[in-house]
From TrEMBL:
The chain crosses the membrane at residues 30-48. Gene3D superfamilies: Glycosidases, Golgi alpha-mannosidase II. It comes from Pedobacter riviphilus. Residues 64-493 form the Glycosyl hydrolase family 13 catalytic domain. This is Alpha-amylase family protein. Keywords: Membrane, Transmembrane, Transmembrane helix.
Length: 613
């Protein structure tokens, strides 16, 4: 039950619970109403706590997908193709059958990427939405991270554009009906240069609507300005099919600072030139002096936006470039929004291990990316690089994430990274299976898949702005071939998959079945197994153990050498309740191993085992 108590603010109506500067109403009826429901909220709190506890009995498994690509059955794939040529997936394409297929992977959260309305060249003027200027849009479909309306969803994703929000709301209901949670992006650091909200609530103001544009910085401004200068479209881009609609001009006077902290009217082509930086009260050009009291207008607007989507049924937010926004904002806003729904989760995209703990403790994030550390180290091992060393795995959990490994999200693919099966990464999805086993078992925090990863999507092709960069484009209208085989024209039964692709998906299913329900993974301790037998710098073993379960995880990244070792089990772990018989959980194969203080292991190149003992 959500109770709205509204106070009129500069930027529109706000939840009193999310604004400590909101004037208290003296209306006694309102006070009486609040008191009347107080007891009801208290009575519900114990139920809510039980629900939260219930969710904690499984590891969080996230499935990331772009609706624009996920449901697209069109196979034309013309470079820089229009939506009419290449097609676009819709919210409605994510059917109950599709969600069942996702659930087969033991997923419990779906991250719908690119839901919010973002800058695009596709014309929806008939619905009151103008196309954006081609000089400040990346690709024809546009970047999902150049938001042009925080209160709207992307019209590309709707069958009936007029009812696009209802179609999104129906997707949320379908997802929840399958006992899956919904994540969406929150992009707090920057917005599209063309930002204008057509769908904002009554009495809400757009970013910058009340700015004093004569000042480079003001604590009251939403943007940073370069007074007296015009924005200059960056040069250096190659000629493309979009060049015919680009005139190297964009009307922005005075120029605003660019999203990646470029305080110049002339950003470069490799800057985030399509975005403008939001002002959270930090004067970057004066030694990053902070102005957080009174609360900056951007903070209040963003709190409203998060509350708006929470009330739509969203269960959590993946926060883009979280480190580019002050910790003080997160410290304030996350508890505020959790007053609306205490079960919300906030995931921060973070790349600086030195401040991980600060963003978790002070910033109040539930989870952070484990990219710089575990992902980077595993990628080297998967690629068989000369400097690859399993010491990177050890460093990730014993040093970088020591004490908070259960709050790090592990992954091998997402929309920013190269596809495993691409020529630039590994060239074969199977080469990453030991890394996936380590990612899923090393901690009790979330593990994430990117749609198509489970069937070996290679990300081939020069799609448009994305180029042939070993990734699946986020900027263009495109079909995703390997994923489309599993989709099978909307049947979502995988009948077009090859035998190897079916085996790969089955491997992911089994691995995540094991880890998502394993007490040792979710609640257990970790013990690093000392090198034994012929173990080298491309072989790693550790034990996860709790009062209910013991698991030996062994990963062999070596391309040629079989791992042969006798793994000694310490006394303190032997005392823990054991299983009989000893079983390789990835194959459900019973191992003929006599009871004792050690486990003999023989592991072929590029393989892994999760042994319950």
């Amino acid at each position: 039950m959500i109770v709205e108590v509204k106070c009129e603010m500069e930027n529109g109506w706000r939840f009193a619970s999310t604004d400590r500067h909101c004037e208290e109403r003296s209306n006694l009826n309102a006070v009486a109403y609040i008191l009347a429901i107080f007891c009801l909220l208290i009575s519900l709190s114990s139920f809510a706590q039980k629900q939260r506890t219930k969710m904690n009995d499984k590891q969080i498994v996230i499935y990331q997908l772009l609706p624009r690509l996920f449901g697209n059955k069109n196979t034309t794939n013309a470079p820089y193709g229009t939506i009419e040529q290449n097609g676009s997936g819709k919210f409605n394409d994510i059917t109950e059958k599709a969600l069942d297929g996702i659930k087969e992977l033991h997923v419990n959260y779906v991250w719908y990427t690119g839901v919010l309305a973002h800058a695009s060249l596709t014309d929806y003027a008939a619905y009151g939405i103008k196309p954006d200027d081609a000089d400040v849009v990346k690709g024809r479909a546009g970047s999902p991270y150049a938001i042009r309306d925080y209160y709207d969803v992307d019209p590309d994703l709707a069958v009936d554009v007029k009812n696009r929000m209802k179609e999104f709301e129906a997707l949320v209901k379908r997802t929840h009906a399958k006992n899956l949670k919904v994540l969406i992006d929150f992009v707090p650091n920057h917005v599209a240069r063309s930002y204008h909200s057509y769908a904002k609530p009554k009495n809400a103001f757009d970013f910058g609507a009340k700015d004093d544009v004569s000042k480079a910085f003001s604590p009251k401004n939403d943007f940073y300005y370069i007074p007296g200068q015009h924005f200059v479209v960056p040069a250096g881009g190659q000629k493309t099919p979009l060049s015919t609609i680009q005139d190297d001009q964009f009307n922005e006077t005075p120029a605003k600072a660019t999203g990646n902290n470029v305080f110049s009217a002339t950003p470069k082509y490799d800057d985030w030139y399509e975005t403008i930086k939001l002002n959270y009260g930090v004067d970057y050009q004066s030694g990053e002096k902070q102005y957080f009291d009174p609360i900056p207008p951007v903070w209040l607007k963003m709190c409203d936006i998060l509350t708006y989507w929470t009330n739509k049924g969203v269960d959590g937010f993946r926060c883009d470039m979280a480190e580019m926004v002050p910790i003080a904002f997160w410290n304030w806003v996350i508890p505020q929004v959790k007053k609306v729904n205490p079960d919300l989760i906030f995931i921060g995209e973070a790349y600086n291990p030195k401040v991980y703990k600060q963003y978790l403790d002070e910033g109040k994030f539930d989870y952070l990316y484990d990219k710089v550390g575990l992902y980077d180290g595993l990628k080297k091992l998967v690629r068989n690089e000369p400097t690859a060393d399993v010491a990177a795995i050890k460093h990730a959990w014993q040093v970088e994430c020591a004490g908070f490994g259960n709050r790090m999200l592990r992954f091998l693919e997402n929309h920013d990274e190269e596809r495993i099966a691409s020529a630039g990464f590994a060239g074969s999805a199977e080469l990453a299976l030991p890394a996936m086993v380590v990612s899923a078992t090393l901690g009790s925090g979330p593990v994430m898949l990117y749609f198509g990863q489970e069937v070996g999507e290679p990300g081939k092709g020069r799609e448009g702005f994305g180029g042939d960069d070993n990734r699946t484009t986020i900027f263009d209208y495109w079909g995703v071939p390997s994923h489309q085989k599993w989709m099978n024209n909307g049947a979502f039964d995988g009948k077009q998959l090859t035998e190897n692709e079916q085996k790969l998906r089955a491997y992911y299913q089994q691995l995540l079945k094991v880890t998502s329900t394993s007490d040792a993974v979710i609640n257990g301790e970790i013990y690093e197994v000392p090198a034994a037998g012929n173990m080298n710098k491309r072989m790693y073993a550790f034990i996860r153990y709790s009062g209910k379960q013991r698991l030996l995880v062994v990963a062999n990244f070596d391309r040629t050498q079989t791992l042969t070792a006798n793994i000694e089990i310490p006394d303190q772990i032997l005392k823990v309740k054991h299983s009989s018989p000893v079983t390789d959980l990835l194959t459900d194969r019973k191992l003929n191993i006599p009871a004792g203080t050690s486990i003999p292991v023989t592991l072929t190149p590029v393989s892994a085992q999760v042994i319950e003992f």
